[in-house]
Protein: RNA polymerase sigma-70 factor (ECF subfamily)
Organism: Flavobacterium croceum DSM 17960
Amino acid sequence: MEIKDYIVKAKAGDQVAFTYLLDKYWNEVYGFMLKRTENETDAEDITIETFSKAFDKIANYNPDYQFNTWLIAIAKNVHIDLLRKKKSSLFIEITDEEDHQAYNVADSSPSAEDDLITEQNLSQLLQFIKELKPHYQEIIQLRYFQELSYQEISEQLNEPLSNVKIKLLRAKKLLAEVILQKNK
């Protein structure tokens, strides 16, 4: 079957086609971003975000262009967005008064109130995670709480690496939907 056939199937929502496209183009997009960022974590995050956006917008894909070119264009935009976010967080305008207040802070460790808020937020997040199906709960637990790499998760679950990546993408999207729904 040709790539165009997989793209047509993916447009129709075929999960096998999504997995095939992810497997086929993952290394190309990841390698491209690794050269640009020179950081494995950033390259991996950008690649995941790229496939997430591409699969969300696959209906807009124009078959006159190569699929990998389209993915690389998305990856470049995701990378630019990441750089803008980093840059804007580095340069925050503060007044002299705020600067003076910050200079006079004696202790920057979290207060009891800060710890309580963090604990409540974590507790609420765990409640949201519990609303997901067990296999999505497990993959979020392994990745974000046990901080396992994709490869380690793949080995632990005895699943292909591409399945782990797609399952984590879906789990994050579903979790975001649960959070948005609960916060309405």
